[in-house]
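Next comes one such specimen:
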Amino acid sequence: MQNSSTLTWVIFGGLCATLIAFSMTISHVYLGDDLAAYVMAGHIFAEGRFDAIYPSVEAARELAPPDYWSNSANLLGRDKPALSPFIYPPLWAAVMGALHPVTTYGALKVIFSGLVTTALIFTAEFTRRLVAPEVSPLASIWSAGVFIPCTTIGVITLNELQAQAFVAVFTVGAFAFSASRRPAIAGTLLALAASLKLFPALFVLFWIARGSWKEAAYFTAVGATLGCLSIAAGGWDMTYTFLLVTSELSSISVTVVTSLGLTPVLSILEHPDVLQAAFNGTGNPLSALRNTAPLWVSLFTKGILIVGLGVLVWLSRHATRFDFHTQILPTALFLVPLTLPLAWTHSYAWALFFPVLLYISTSDRFYGYLTLVLFAGTNTLWITGDIFSFDEKHIMVPVIGTVSVIGIATALFSRTVKSMA
């Protein structure tokens, strides 16, 4: 039995290394827009221009980088300038600034291609350990090998070299290590996730509700340490600018083909002219949908997040470990990004592997249907053309994807409430 287990892990390691090496080999085809923003922030941090790292409030509304980045194509050594702004805590600008003297964008693109692929593979593996520990680890490799290149969630995360891949592996890994009674690692991983994107901090509520005080304590201690390091790295002014820009982004709505959430889709209802243009086939209707989210949309989505997450946290208090991992946690992983003001396709990377691994583990048709909906509903970009050219996509692309995720979240929520209540 031990030999079989060892052989399985050897095969797992070999396949994992093959996927990572392949991804690094083809790194030149990735857009790498999120990485470009990181590298530019590092360049500017190393120059000491702390005031030019974050966009102005006006630029943030357009999701545009600062004007100072206009020559970033030359600095990065790529065909086009950095298109995305840097919206991460000052700590990560300081980290990239430290790497600036010893590496280049091209080298980092190869390295991050491997790191993002590794993060997605281990997100699948940590998911398996939570929901299907009795299943061979080769199932997680199979899931990663199919769902990374064959879903827009996986492709966009990899294509843009998104930091969301690290948020995903840290968050799911935190609960996997908590399940194996390693609270220090669990709390540290969730703190790292929250240091990249703030919203993973919401998941500490589950540890508090379930009495996992050690995990919550480590999360608080490591999170506070990372926060202090971030302030020390960038100073109060840079930290204030980051918080100001983050606050501004929480009030806007951007509807593009990679939007996958309630706010960007419901905001379309405020633009009947855009809807008419979409169905008449005139112009590019998506370009008009970048503005402040309507108040009723903001209140509605925040209400769903508060009520939905509140019910899940309440149900988790007395849930068994199995029920928590297979029902409550995946429901929350779909619910949270669905209600974010800026909801993107890659925001669901942490939930990508739950339905398929639950189906592999239980053979429950319910999870099989969820897998099909996730696979088909969020893959409408494949149907509408080249994934690397978004300009001509129809407005129904984000609508279909969002409706699919709403269906998955609602189905999971209904089953969770029914079985836990």
User: Anything to note?
Assistant: The chain has 20 helices and two strands. The two ends are 40 Å apart (CA to CA). The CA atoms of residues 96 and 218 lie 26 Å apart. The longest helix spans residues 213-249.
